[in-house]
UniProtKB/TrEMBL annotation:
Membrane topology term: Multi-pass membrane protein
Protein name per Swiss-Prot or TrEMBL: Arginine/ornithine transport system permease protein
Residue ranges constituting the ABC transmembrane type-1 domain according to the UniProt record: 26-224
Gene3D superfamilies, sorted: MetI-like (1.10.3720.10)
Organism for this UniProt entry: Paracoccus aminovorans
Similarity comment text for this entry: Belongs to the binding-protein-dependent transport system permease family. HisMQ subfamily.
Amino acid sequence: MENLLSFIPLDLPLIVQNLDRFLHGVWVTLGLTFLSLAFGGAMAVPLAIARASRHRVLNPLIWAYTYVFRGTPLLVQTYLLYYGAGQFQFVRDSWLWGPVLSQAWWCALIAFTLNTCAYTTELLRGAVMDTPKGEVEAAIATGMSPRGRLRRIVLPSAFRRAIPAYSNEVIFMLHGSVVASTITLQDILGVGRWLNGRYYLAYEGLITAAVLYFIIVFAITRVFRWLERRYLRHLERRRDAVVRNIAPPMGVK
């Protein structure tokens, strides 16, 4: 076993020795990622509805919000909140300063939530606007109210069709969570950087972090693959039917 480890250019015993730190980093990363996705997703639903309805007042305000947060890097947004908010006296004097805005974890969560909310808002807006007209017309013909159509027809259909695109947003948010390591939080990358700095290493911490991210992304893709098979099965059947109809008969080129 020792001869085998001598051929591996990594200090595996050191990694195993600090595995508890990496597990804590996984907990911090997953907590920040999925809490921001949950809060951002809940905020994005009404914003997407307002954008899709082209409300005269709300639509331009929401568009400006999504444009700013999608047009600037997440790192800049996090820095502005963590380092910039404390530059204002009224912020330091407010009740939010002590328990929230002075804490790195809360600043990261707020920045991540606002960022993913902007992306999810535009994603859902497109899904709502792409709802097939036939479904809406059928709901109107049955006498559904506008609120009933939105709750029972438009939103469920939009959520189902947004699953593939939203899986990318979840993975992007996970990757973007590495920003937390730049404001003193010990997420996965933060622990990897700490390990390299503590023991003057070049690869061990970063490669371990990369492997952990790979495992998490693999699990996320498996979950969304299952969701697609469960909720988009009717679209696969429709696509297969179209392919069969346009495919040439056997022996015809």
